[in-house]
Amino acid sequence: xxxxxxxxxxxxxxxxxxxxxxxxxxxxxxxxxxxxxxxxxxxxxxxxxxxxxxxxxxxxxxxxxxxxxxxxxxxxxxxxxxxxxxxxxxxxxxxxxxxxxxxxxxxxxxxxxxxxxxxxxxxxxxxxxxxxxxxxxxxxxxxxxxxxxxxxxxxxxxxxxxxxxxxxxxxxxxxxxxxxxxxxxxxxxxxxxxxxxxxxxxxxxxxxxxxxxxxxxxxxxxxxxxxxxxxxxxxxxxxxxxxxxxxxxxxxxxxxxxxxxxxxxxxxxxxxxxxxxxxxxxxxxxxxxxxxxxxxxxxxxxxxxxxxxxxxxxxxxxxxxxxxxx
Length: 326
What we know:
Blueprint: H1 2-8, E1 13-19, E2 23-29, H2 33-45, E3 49-60, H3 66-74, E4 105-113, E5 121-124, E6 129-130, E7 147-151, E8 156-166, E9 183-185, E10 188-192, H4 194-198, H5 202-210, E11 217-219, E12 226-228, E13 234-236, E14 239-240, E15 258-262, E16 266-272, H6 279-325
Antiparallel strand pairs: 1-2, 2-16, 3-8, 4-6, 4-8, 5-7, 9-16, 10-15, 11-12, 13-14
Helix pairs in contact: 2-6
Pfam families: RNA_pol_A_bac, RNA_pol_L
GO cellular component, one term: RNA polymerase II, core complex
Protein name: DNA-directed RNA polymerases II, IV and V subunit 3
């Protein structure tokens, strides 16, 4: 039980900084880097999604090889809201693990032929016809879609694709997280040394404030006191303000009237999905998996404490009594 309590103490408090369909930035406070690494790994490797797993090409007279087409199809993200409700193909009781029924798979059909004599035909993800309207390419309703192949006059492509549930640990096509924008870091914090700050003139204070990004510090016009201003952390999902400030070397003060330090128990966490899941769905699914792991650990701990260790103690007592008789 003591081990579980120590795990519970690692559960952080949450503060969402920015939330979009694919992008989520949040702050975790009161935890350790070990917890953050576990959460990131679960989001990358263990949250299930749906992706094309098998492709059977009946006709392909295009300029692309079958292998290239299959690779391109498997990497098109599919909407995966139903992933948690589907069976893994090897565990489906409906088809005895064959992976070819509606409870563990989704079938796609594609039939395209360029019949125009002087034009080409763009085959995109919009041409994939699904057996389940809830599972479609992420850009199915986009006017352009994801390009698959360009057919020349007279060329034809006919295929069947089977999408199944999987996790990133078994293949990158199932990973719901983009690798580049999945990261975390400890934010820097600032503390103004009021005594040193009061030794500066107003002009020196203005010069000092100018060495930092705008709106981080402001000078009160009445008291001439420098204040740390609460500011919006996120500008947009591609430019995250990470608190890592760099002083202008031409306008430094010694000793510095400010202290910069990292909060070792606080982390800024950013994630961006591949479109298979929304960012909030990814986080909630990852937390559910983490919770299940902790519950399993708790049950395993109770099993050892309530049975195995007791049995081991009785065996030791019997062995001791037999040794005394000898």
